[in-house]
């Protein structure tokens, strides 16, 4: 004799919230018009220049340029990651994370380590090392200092944002 089966399905609130939130992706077009947004785009473009100028040389023969490459690539990847977070307004969906503190720590550490890397880069550029790579290393040194100043600016704006949130 045929049996009748009753199947009951339920959906959790997590599934409902996930499908509701993923259907409306937020996109903040105005972020790129702010000073921190412009600085972040400049950091990405010029940071890319720093590490590509070094990567096109025999930098692996000189440990100092390995350090500069590490800092440049590491902060380039993280800056792209944070730009995506800010552009998609993901920070509004994860309120448990103290985003102003994260931004301040990120920009502050980027400023300090990029400053060290720029100084190491500039002090390592000599014509005696390798005449073939001199121009690339000198250009990377210049752009490293420019990127350092951009991270300094973003550190300032992150500090102002963090300070205004902690006073409330």
Automatic annotation (TrEMBL):
Q: Which GO terms describe its cellular component?
A: membrane
Q: Does the keyword Membrane feature in the UniProt annotation?
A: yes
Protein topology in the membrane: Multi-pass membrane protein
Query: Where do transmembrane segments lie in this chain?
Result: 31-54, 60-85, 97-117, 137-159
By its UniProt entry, which InterPro entries does this protein fall under? MAL, Marvel, MARVEL-CKLF_proteins
**Gene Ontology molecular function, alphabetical:** structural constituent of myelin sheath
* Biological process annotations from GO: myelination
Entry keyword Metal-binding:
no
Subcellular compartments: Membrane
* Domain MARVEL intervals: 31-163
Q: Which UniProt keywords apply?
A: Membrane, Transmembrane, Transmembrane helix
PANTHER family registered for this protein in UniProt: CKLF-LIKE MARVEL TRANSMEMBRANE DOMAIN-CONTAINING PROTEIN 8, MARVEL-CONTAINING POTENTIAL LIPID RAFT-ASSOCIATED PROTEIN
Q: What is this protein called?
A: CKLF8 protein
Q: Which organism is it from?
A: Drymodes brunneopygia
What does the organism's lineage look like at the top?
Eukaryota, Metazoa, Chordata, Craniata, Vertebrata
Q: Name the encoding gene, please.
A: Cmtm8
